[in-house]
Structure formats: structure tokens, C-alpha cells
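C-alpha cells in:
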């Protein structure tokens, strides 16, 4: 579904990604693991059409992404949930969700699906997004992407700032979403344990290069990966 080939990207003189390869198949959940500054956000922003790579190829459903705008990529079914969430703080939960389907109108079934997934949003329906807790804001950000009916959901550190129980709740919701809809997911995280339960495969990015790749079990069993990303020897 998504193919990233020999991707190079940076900011001016600063080279950040040095030839990254990654593929995500239909229905898969793939983890992108890396420490601060490894290049995860840069990679995801390239995929979503928000940052232009300096070299390499990106295809979605076999079609090249290079010439497409971020809006066109979103319409084609690829949605990025940015790590800073980008909600409209003065707008309510409901209003934020309604914007997710733009320019389409949101079907009430799509809103029901979001509240089924995140029941606490139903209790916060009329509350301004800026006054929600961090975890609730993340749920709105994911929900807003979902009302656009993406086929590939791209999540940039969705559990940052969340207490472990809330992070677990978010991943449980994503897992049930996947069971129900077969949605494909690419998710960046700094630590393996958060995504391990959900992703079947992953790559580990270090300073813009893929250092490790494999199934979740292979990654979790690799001593070097364990040391760096599980916090255990
Ligand atoms: N807009 C920018 N201008 C200049 N340098 C940038 C910009 N955005 C990111 N960088 C640099 O690119 C490198 C990779 O950043 P990136 O945000 O992709 O890392 P990351 O893996 O997402 O890190 P984190 O886990 O902290 O979010 C960093 O050294 C960062 O300072
Ligand atoms: Mg980042």
C-alpha cells in the first residue's frame, strides 16, 4: 500500500534521512521506532506530503506521491495524526471532529464510530478541545482523522505525554478499530513496548538510517534493540 524507497530528506544543509526503505502492506500495523531526532516525524511528514524529500520515491497504492499536495494525499486515504495534535482549541470536540472529513460532510455513522471507540469523547462532546486532557485531545486527533475514512492511518507518537493506562487505552481502541475495519496503520514511537502489542512489524531508525527491521518478536528479542528501546539489558 505504501512504499518508501531510498528516501533522503532534510532541512537546508541538514540531512536528516539517509536512504530509508519502508513498505506497509494492506491491513498491516507497522511500527517506526526511534529516539528523539532520529527522523521519524520527518519521514511521516514526507509520506503525508507535508515535507518534500530531497531524493527517493514514495508511492501509495502504486501511484507516486511526489507531485501530489498534502490535501490530495489525504483525500486519497492517507491521514497523518501529527504529534502535536493540531486541534482547534476554541472549537468543541464535535466541531473538531466535523472538520476531519472536509470537504465531505461527516456522516453520523462516522461520529458514532468515533464515540464507540472513545466513549469518553461522548461525555465531552460540547467541551472546547483546548480544555481537554492530553489523552482526550489525542483521542480527538485520532477521531478527526478517522472521520475522513482513511485506509492508511499514520500516527506520530500518539502516546506522548499520556500516562501508561491512557496509552494502553488508546492502543486498545486502535486494535479494535483495526479488527473492525481492517485499517492499515503506520505508527511512530520512541519505545517499543507501547506499540509491540499492536504492530506485527517494525523498523528502528537511528540518525536517519534503518538500523533494525523485523517482526515485533524479532525486534523485542534483539539484544541491541532491547537495550536501546526497551530499557532492559
Ligand atoms: N523544521 C526543521 N528545521 C530544521 N531542522 C529540523 C526541522 N524539523 C526537524 N529538524 C531536525 O531534524 C532532525 C530529525 O527531526 P525529527 O523531528 O524528524 O525527529 P523525530 O524522530 O521525530 O524526533 P522526536 O522523537 O523528538 O519527535 C532533528 O535533528 C531536528 O532537529
Ligand atoms: Mg517527532
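Residues out:
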Amino acid at each position: 500500500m505504501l512504499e518508501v524507497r531510498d528516501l533522503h530528506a532534510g532541512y537546508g544543509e541538514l540531512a536528516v534521512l539517509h536512504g530509508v526503505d519502508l513498505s506497509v502492506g494492506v491491513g498491516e500495523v507497522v511500527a517506526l521506532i526511534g529516539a528523539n531526532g532520529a527522523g521519524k516525524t520527518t519521514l511521516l511528514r514526507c509520506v503525508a506530503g507535508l515535507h518534500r524529500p530531497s531524493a527517493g520515491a514514495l508511492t501509495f497504492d502504486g501511484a507516486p506521491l511526489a507531485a501530489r499536495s498534502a490535501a490530495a494525499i489525504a483525500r486519497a486515504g492517507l491521514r497523518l495524526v501529527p504529534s502535536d495534535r493540531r486541534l482547534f482549541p476554541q472549537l468543541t470536540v464535535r466541531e473538531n471532529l466535523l472538520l476531519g472529513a472536509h470537504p465531505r460532510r461527516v456522516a453520523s455513522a462516522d461520529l458514532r464510530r468515533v464515540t464507540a471507540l472513545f466513549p469518553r469523547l461522548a461525555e465531552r462532546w460540547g467541551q472546547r478541545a483546548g480544555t481537554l486532557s492530553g489523552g482526550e485531545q489525542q483521542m480527538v486527533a485520532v477521531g478527526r482523522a478517522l472521520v475522513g475514512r482513511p485506509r492508511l492511518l499514520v500516527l506520530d507518537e500518539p502516546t506522548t505525554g499520556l500516562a501508561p493506562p491512557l496509552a494502553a487505552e488508546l492502543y486498545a481502541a486502535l486494535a479494535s478499530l483495526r479488527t473492525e475495519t481492517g485499517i492499515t496503520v503506520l505508527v511512530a514511537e520512541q519505545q517499543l513496548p507501547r506499540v509491540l502489542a499492536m504492530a506485527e512489524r517494525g523498523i528502528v531508525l537511528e540518525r536517519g538510517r534503518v538500523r533494525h527491521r523485523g517482526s515485533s518478536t524479532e525486534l523485542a528479542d534483539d539484544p541491541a534493540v532491547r537495550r536501546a528501546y526497551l530499557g532492559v539489558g
